[in-house]
Design a protein that fits this description.
This protein has eight helices and no strands. The chain starts with a helix and ends in a 5-residue tail after the last helix. It has helices spanning 2-26, 33-45, 50-69, 77-81, 90-105, 107-132, 138-157, 164-185. The chain has one domain (35-185). The relative contact order is 0.15. It is globular. It is mostly helical.
Length: 190
Amino acid sequence: MTIINEYCRFIHYFCQMKKNVKSTHQNPQFNRPVEKIFFELNQVFGSGNYLAYAIFMILFFFGLMGLIWMIPFPKLTILERMNAQTFLNWGSFFIAIVIYCYLRLAPTLSYAVLFSIGIMSYFIVQLEYVERDGGPTVVLVTSILMLIGLIGLWFSANKQKVTINQFTKLLTYGPVWLWSKVFTKLNWKF
């Protein structure tokens, strides 16, 4: 009789452990909001091709930033007197907002995104020089790149049958999420 009781207690204990393991996998505890965001993105897009996500995310983000960069900025006399009108445009505000949002999530990753934005800014300025010399307009080039990136992300993501909300989250947090993959691969903390 005692062997049967012990066996039943063992089975009960084992079942309880199994329930606890399932509940921790379904509802993990997060120390920071960024961990929750990355967990959700990993659940939906984790089985995808990160290289494809990275390429299409770069094209989309570069195109979006280039389009915002090219929105005409009002001429302010204060900036003209300081000869600083060329350094301030709507792209500057876009960069500031993006980096501030990412900085609140994960400071180290926001610096990596800022580095990427710096490289993209250089290429946008180069596109402006090409346009000035008679080449295609920056708006045309960045629109095409943004559409290629958006369509590529959509088809890459839809292999996992994502919703519009999940896709929007990928577009919003994708750059910092992809940088987290690089940091994880290099064993760097973020």
